[in-house]
Amino acid sequence: MTTAGPTELELRRRNFKAQQSTVQTRKQQAVCVRRAHKKYGSKSQPNIILDGLNMTVPKGCIYGLLGASGCGKTTLLNCIVGRKRLNSGEIWVLGGQPGSKGSGVPGPRIGYMPQEIALYGEFSIRETLKYFGWVSDLSTEQVEARLEFLVNLLMLPDPDRQVKCLSGGQQRRVSLAAALVHDPELLILDEPTVGVDPLLRQNIWGHLVEITKHGRKTVIITTHYIDEARQAHLIGLMRGGYFLAEESPEQLIVQFGAESLEDVFLKLSVIQNMGKRRRSSILQSVTDAIPIPAGSVNEGAILDDEVGEISGEFGDNTSMSGRSARRVSIAPDASVETIPPELPPEEETEVKWTDYLKIVKWSHMRALVWKNFLWMWRNIPVMTFIIGLPVGQMILFCLSIGHDPNDVTLSVVNNEINYPMERCEYKAGCNASYLSCNYLDYISNNYSLIMNYYATEAEARQTVEKGKSWAMLVVPNNFSDSLRSRIDNGKDTPSWDLAGSVIDVFSDKSNENIATFITRDLLFGLEGYAKSFLKQCDIDPKVFGIPIKFETPIYGYGSPDFTDFAAPGIILTIIFFMAVALTSGAMLMERNEGILERTLVNGITGTEVLFSQVITQFVVMFGQTTMVLVFAFPIFQLTQNGNWFNLFSLTILSGVCGMCFGFVVSCVCENERSATYMALGSFLPIVMLCGIIWPIEAMSPYLTWASTCLPLTQATESLRCIIARGWGIQVPAVYYGFLSITLWICIFLTISILVLKFRKG
Ligand SMILES: Nc1ncnc2c1ncn2[C@@H]1O[C@H](COP(=O)(O)OP(=O)(O)OP(=O)(O)O)[C@@H](O)[C@H]1O
Fold first, then answer.
1. Are 170 and 112 in contact (CB under 8 A)?
2. Which of 22, 65, 230, 660 is most deeply packed, by most CB within 10 A?
3. Cα dist. 83→80, 86, 112, 759 in Å?
4. How many whole angstroms from its chain centre is CA 676?
5. How far is the CA of 36 from the centre of ligand 1 (A)?
6. Residue 740 near residue 732, CB atoms below 8 Å
7. Distance CA 46, CA 343 (A)
8. In ligand 1, which atom is closest to the CA atom of 238?
9. Per UniProt, what is the membrane topology (predicted)?
């Protein structure tokens, strides 16, 4: 669609006047790009995308950015909206440099529609527009009014339908509506008409023409339908990192005597290619055969494909770099010298020092937190799983870790009895014939050991060697008599009785834990049996006991309990890593679907995104922590002698710490896969080094030092002190845990904020 007759504004758009390139003139454009260089890839293999590109978008125009796929249009737009950084060059947007304080860019002055859909599939159209409207400081009533208008303009379906249920074309229109909802000064649309039918495309262009009519709004649009760009006031034809031409479509068509813009683009591309090979005489003849309108092409592009400026800059066309000054811009109509007086005023925003102190904006926080909760509400099965998962892990821990092994089999060769003719059974009394049978019976009854009897050592040894039994016990044939002699004679016991009163144990120590349990049971069992036997003989049991007595412990448990030892570390680890997974997952989802980029262009800051996630995830973590603690203590009866508040707050802090680590993971990693590697890669070191499953005192001295600095080490020790010793916050071992984890939260948050701030392009 074209407007009838040249308006004053159109005249202005066509009028160029050579003048000095000053910051002043650059600030007066809607967008002004100078000597832009942007490359991806490494130093040795750079992929140069923008190569000295100049671009001038006057206020109040529709600027069509055209070029082949992959030529760098999206990259250029991302640099303009402040989401990517140039390697060198300058960009001015609405009078300021993107990202500088007070420029308003990124912010609600811009409406940005990225190439990807970048919307929340679970939200309805209404909710989507409400979110983007709120982000841009609109009230709910204003959003509703705009919604009605945009539904009509873009022929959107019922606003209460969910975005994920719409067709691809409908989703693109919702995405466009989200960019238009706050009626911004500068609209940047990356291929808004892809997949849109011709009638609707016409509507969209009609709307763009309408909003730019009064010169207050500016539109930059990329499209693959080159001919629809005829409705733009200016077009930039991009190729090889710079513009082949930057001119009004009518003028280009006239100058090149072409039928369509597509023809112009083809001609310019051929000319540019020929310039690259101008030393070839064969190609030179072809070049000569193509009619080139005088002064209409970027000579620099022909002469030297490394250089890049072509801009016929609106009121600024002498601003060429040394290199690009060799180029000839597409000539403006030099006959017209006047510039209409009322250029849109220069945007100057005063920056107060207090602005630097404002970390978050409450309207932004409201929109973000509302959006996060709405997403959760729409994903109840996912959320149930997320809250239920730590509980499941805790139940598994309580059921599986730290308990004594059951039914451990031992192979016994008792040479005191004539096996298999005779049975080895308990016989009461001081004069019982086989004390070994009484001892083995005592052990079987009091410990979870199963005795299997064999006639020969060879048979018994085979069972151990084949893994059917964990140890072989060999009882000497005169064990009972020798033991009695030992008790009766004390230090005068003959050496044969000393040797004859010893049961030999041959263990399978391939499983250290089970071997240790067997050793413990045999020793404690012997002590227990000896005491009962001595009592039956009216002898003081102390005679046989070792001269050390373990009284009731001051803290902790009578018998070693690994479940209670490991529980504090396990609780903190579960909550920490669930938060890592949840946060990095949520952030990466937003980032990779382009939603985060879009939100940041709307003026939301990385810090606000982080804080909103902190608030939302905190609620989730609260639920997770409560459930985990309920299952660990009241239900599974793990020891808890301490203050519930301290226990709860330290667990929550570990979740917050995990959340902040999740932010770091999502900021540093490009995709879910690298995030998974990073999270998994950190899991085992933390579990191994933080004293969760083994005391840090047992580590090598250097590791002990390193371990002390890790996020969960002090916290685990602190939690152990709280629940096992019942210590309060005033005790250093307890508050060190709180301090260390708080310090880690600050470190992770700072890293995330810095990475979000500085990692662009
Ligand atoms: N993050 C990135 N890292 C490395 N290369 C990139 C990155 N983003 C884009 N590129 C490369 O930069 C070039 C320009 O990409 P860009 O998306 O800007 O092109 P485009 O003109 O918008 O293409 P299209 O019209 O197909 O969307 C492409 O070759 C692309 O592969």
1. no
2. 65
3. 8, 10, 11, 9
4. 9
5. 16
6. no
7. 40
8. 21
9. Multi-pass membrane protein
Sheet containing 110-113, strands listed edge to edge, beginning at the edge strand earlier in sequence: 110-113, 186-190, 218-222, 62-67, 234-239, 242-247
Handedness of CA 250, 255, 259, 263 (dihedral sign): negative
What is the C-alpha separation between 70 and 271, in angstroms, rounded?
20
Residues of the chain with pLDDT under 50: 1-5, 13-20, 277-347, 761
Structure confidence at residue 230 (pLDDT): 86
Q: Which domains does the chain have, with CATH numbers?
A: 22-109+184-277 (3.40.50.300), 362-398+561-759 (no CATH), 408-537 (3.40.190)
Residues 394 and 632: their CA atoms lie apart, in Å, by 7
Q: What's residue 477's pLDDT?
A: 92
Helix 732-758 to helix 644-668 angle (10° resolution) is 20
Residue nearest to atom 3 of ligand 1 (CA): 40
Do the Cβ atoms of 133 and 146 come closer than 8 Å? yes
- DSSP notation for 85-119: --SEEEEEETTB-TTSTTS-TTTTTEEEE-SS--S
Torsion 748-749-752-754 (CA) sign: negative
> How far is 600 from 750, CA to CA, in rounded Å?
18
Residue 509 is predicted with a pLDDT of 94
Distance from the alpha carbon of residue 759 to the mean position of ligand 1, in angstroms: 18
Looking at residue 162, what DSSP letter applies?
A: B
How far apart CA 272 and CA 303 sit, in angstroms, is: 9
> Phi first, then psi: what are they for 230, rounded to 5°?
-60, -25
Distance CA 140, CA 137 (A): 9
At 6 the pLDDT is 52
pLDDT at residue 651, as a whole number: 97
Out of 38, 48, 51, 73, give the residue to mutate to test ligand 1, the one with the largest number of ligand atoms within 8 Å of its CB: 73
In DSSP terms, 55 is beta-bridged to: 33
Q: What pLDDT does 281 receive?
A: 37
In this prediction, residue 309 carries a pLDDT of: 38
